[in-house]
TrEMBL record:
Keywords linked to the UniProt accession: Antibiotic resistance, ATP-binding, Nucleotide-binding, Transport
UniProt keyword annotation of ATP-binding present: yes
InterPro entries: AAA+_ATPase (IPR003593), ABC_transporter-like_ATP-bd (IPR003439), ABC_transporter-like_CS (IPR017871), ABC_transporter_ATP-binding (IPR050763), P-loop_NTPase (IPR027417)
Record protein name field: ATP-binding cassette domain-containing protein
Domain ABC transporter, first and last residues per copy: 2-232
SMART domains membership: AAA (SM00382)
Subcellular location: Cell membrane
Gene Ontology molecular function, alphabetical: ATP binding
Topology within the bilayer: Peripheral membrane protein
Cited Pfam families: ABC_tran (PF00005)
Protein family: Belongs to the ABC transporter superfamily.
Organism: Nocardioides nanhaiensis
């Protein structure tokens, strides 16, 4: 569905995407993770055939976006990060009018609009004004609109940003059903749990490069440990700083990460770490043992410091 080799995107002297390779297979859900400025959006815009390639090779649905942009866009569905719904039209007409841009006959586009409203659970809001919808309803309507042309490839840019947990889970269910129906999904997200739930494979981008690629489970296995022990000692243990405490328990895990309010010990058995910490006479005020997550991988690969 997507094939890229040495793909680059430059804006003047600034290179946003610095030569990446990727392949997206039919029917899978593929994710882009990365901090702001990593190059995710620039890559997505090239895949959507709305931003020209600066270098390298890119094929979308087997076509070259430089020469076949219109044909590619006709087979894509795009759900942008910001809702771009028409406030002057009601919910159903947002779908009907958008479908007419693709040249879909009136009777057919009306039938598809009704099917999609049912799919995203908005049938009862068909004649409501867009401004009266909740944030979750607007996102579901935006996804419905992106499906009106029955795309082979659906691009989703941070589809659940700003939604409450209930709305996010409803949206996840709709996207999972699309994947079951054979639609290929490509998404960017800042939510690690979302990537774990939805993505078969994903890449982590940083500074315009792909720094890791694989399934969520394989990335956790490669870049983290099975468990993490979180140890909170309060402000200090006697006169010892967190750095000194980390030195005293450094041998208990594969690595120890020092945070302002706690220590993270990455190990295969978190409960054993906690027990051995107490054996050494250290008494944390709180402990938590959890499994390693995609967020641990993400922060290890891209760092915890904000990048402007």
């Amino acid at each position: 569905m997507i094939h890229a080799r040495g793909l680059r995107k430059a804006f003047g002297e600034f290179e946003a995407v610095r030569g990446i390779d990727l392949d997206v297979r039919p029917g899978e859900a593929f994710g882009f993770l990365g901090p702001n400025g990593a190059g995710k959006s620039s890559t997505m815009r090239m895949i959507a055939a709305v931003s020209p390639v600066s270098g390298g090779e890119l094929r979308i649905l087997g076509r070259d976006p430089a020469t076949d942009g219109s044909a590619i866009r006709a087979r894509l569905g795009v759900c942008p990060q910001e809702d771009t719904l028409d406030q002057e039209l009601d919910v159903r007409d947002n779908l009907v009018v958008y479908g007419r841009y693709f040249g879909i006959p009136r009777a057919e586009v009306a039938r598809r609009a009704d099917e999609l409203l049912e799919f995203v659970q908005l049938t009862e809001k068909a004649r409501a004004k867009v401004e009266d919808l909740s944030g979750g309803m607007k996102r579901r309507l935006t996804i419905a609109r992106s499906l009106i042309n029955r795309p082979d490839l659906l691009l989703l840019d941070e589809p659940t940003t700003g939604l409450d947990p209930q709305a996010r889970h409803v949206l996840w269910d709709r996207l999972f059903r699309l994947k079951q129906a054979g639609v290929t999904l490509v998404l960017t997200t800042h939510y690690m749990d979302e990537a774990e739930q939805l993505c078969d494979r994903l890449v982590v981008m940083d500074k315009g490069l792909i720094v890791a690629e694989g399934s969520p489970l394989s990335l956790i296995a490669e870049h983290s440990t099975r468990e993490v022990a979180e140890l909170r000692f309060g402000v200090a243990e006697g006169d010892a700083s967190h750095e000194l405490l980390a030195e005293r328990i450094a041998d208990l895990g594969e690595r120890v990460e020092v945070l302002p309010d706690r220590l993270l010990v990455y190990a295969e058995d978190g409960d054993e770490v906690v027990a051995r910490v107490h054996e050494r006479g250290l008494t944390p005020v709180a402990t938590l043992v959890r499994r390693s997550s995609l967020e641990d991988v993400f922060l290890r690969l891209t760092g915890r410091t904000l990048v402007d």
